[in-house]
Amino acid sequence: MRRLRIGIGSKNYGYRRVSYGLPVPEVLYGKRAYVPWKFLRRGSQTLQNTYLFADVRRVDLFHLWNGICLNRRPWITSFEAHLPRYSSLPHEDWRYRLALEKLHGPHCRGLLALSEAARRFFFWQNDGLLSEEVRAKTSVFYGGVETHPALQEEHRRFLEQKNGDLVLCFIGHDFFRKGGRPLLDGFEAARRAGMPVKLQVISGVSANDYASGEDDAAREKAVSRLRANRDIVWHDSLPHGEVMKALANSHVAVLPTLDDTLGWSVLEAMSLGVPVIASNVFAMPEMVDDGTNGFLIPLPLAQNRRWTGIGMVKSSAEFRSVREEAYERIASGIVGHVSRFLAERELLQAMGQAAIRKVDERFSVEKQALQLRSIYEGCLAAG
Questions:
Q1: Which neighbouring-strand residues pair with 252?
Q2: In 3-state terms, what secondary structure has residue 281?
Q3: Where are the beta strands (DSSP E) in 155-312?
Q4: pLDDT tens digits for range 128-165
Q5: Among the four given CATH numbers 3.90.640, 3.10.180, 3.40.50, 3.40.630, the one describing domain 4-144+364-381
Q6: Structure pTM?
Q7: What 3-state class would DSSP assign to 117?
């Protein structure tokens, strides 16, 4: 097995999961310098997702994240949904047409969608613009999550405390986009109904996201609620190891998101044997099997499997009505599923074991690393 040199452009949480953070056999990853478009006075989001690398001779293949490569060298890209990630540009714009030309060119060897939902979204976004060759070289590669036997054992011991409160755990900096406000509504409703439930929140409570339309005033109200409720433990941030320990000491992970590409916190919870309550948007059903390793709260979806509120004018009365309906569905779903977990405590262990099996079968870091090695070899052989 020959050693491969794979060039990358940047480092982030998601990118690590699908490339340089995986134990891919005989692969050496290296960050390569590229034109720093973002520092140009008139830099744009379009340019930030377009790479022109220097020092290309010692690279067998470039592996990008949501990117388009201009170099005449073999390259692939992992992508979350949009590709090219020029969503503000019309298809007839010359930059969009250039990106499509690169996707169709001989140097683009593979397009790795983060989920089946992302693959379908890419086809939907570029309906009528993609050749059969491009569609054929588009596949799903989820990336992998590590297993933590010690934390799995810690969670098993936590479950043995059968008579304690049911502990929920919510993780996500984008608090409102990920369904934080209706989570609080549902949690408070469960407490008012006398349910013994507590909540851990790990979030910077960021507002002004593209999905929820919630502003700084909404953030202040949410922070006040988090601080005032003695049944909530709130951390604005924690080191990753502490986040994993918080999950291990929870009964259920909750991510009732309005919009997410995959949701790594869901997979991390599942890897420890923690069942999940999530919304049904985008790729969530590819992780959470409703009624088997968790529960899905149904939100109304568009053809592209995203919540129907995405793309609406956030200041409009129509959007506010759609958002409140979604919030009511989420809050009601949380109350219902919490009630069921409390009535059937055995579900926690059964669903947790199903969650571990799902991660082992589809998202195991070892299996995904071997698959990625095979993808690299296939892409290089295609030349």
A1: 168
A2: coil
A3: 166-171, 197-202, 232-235, 252-255, 276-279, 294-297
A4: 999 999 999 999 999 999 999 999 999 999 999 877 89
A5: 3.40.50
A6: 0.93
A7: helix
